[in-house]
Amino acid sequence: MMEKSMLKYSIKDLEELSGIKAHTLRMWEKRHGIIKPKRTKTNIRYYSDDDLKRILNIAILNRHGIKISHLARLSSEEIKEKVMHLTNETPDAFTQIENLIIAMLELDDVKFKKILGDSIMKMGFESTLIHVMYPFFEKTGFLWQTGSIIPAQEHFVSNLLRQKLIVAIDGQESSVKQSAKNFVLFLHEEELHELGLLFYSYLIKKRGHRVIYLGQIVPMDNLTHIVSIRKVDFFITTFSRGIPKNKLQNYLVKMSHTFPRQKIFFSGYQTSGEFGKLPDNLKKINSVEHFLSILDTID
Questions:
Q1: How many domains does the chain have?
Q2: b or e along 107-133 (b: 16 or more beta carbons within 10 Å of the residue's beta carbon)?
Q3: 205-228 pLDDT tens trace
Q4: Are 179 and 291 within one domain?
């Protein structure tokens, strides 16, 4: 008989997605039998989709004051029922993010859309983007890097988030202010993942600036041509995967020298860690909140 899922998660994956420390998860395993890891032929422990979903649900309930000793006695269905009730009664960003991860694992578009829709209705779009959508995107990003999420799951969530963002961006078209700056948003030739750019596009337009959105696979000579025909104040790009750090840094330095009059912002999974001293017109975006603080200084 074929296994339900071939995906394998490490204890680090569970820690990253649930927010529960690895040593706590191991203690829950040992004392309460919350989950039972399997082992590969080389004796490496791993966890399944069902283990991850159970931990996410337990994390939600435990965070709301239900003791782990009580949760250990409940079936997965009973735990799921409690989570559904709690989500309806006292929704919060952490719970919404964990529920989005479960909907992603199950490829449940109805559930995914409902969670986002409920959050937007209660918190507003921008607050949902900052506190739910972007953190969800970041939490799952490292799993896409390691292959713990299959391409179908990645495409599933990317397309759903992309739809929401494009509709919201279109709604900002008429809000350009008199002192608006011009932002060019683009991706490197080896980069395909544009969700980060769409997040930034919405936030920039919401604050009354203009966006020239170029999207994926943009050669640098194309950027030079854009600057020759349009005034450009800022470039924004993101790096999610596949570019070695030394190559990435060389690319950024080349951009800095090619466009000395523009400020160049960059972010993404590949830019984690220290870069050392960079030219003055290069600026790393550390978080959505950091980017908002930058936008607040631009007029």
A1: 3
A2: eeeeebeebbebbbeebebeebbbbbb
A3: 988 899 999 988 888 889 999 999
A4: yes
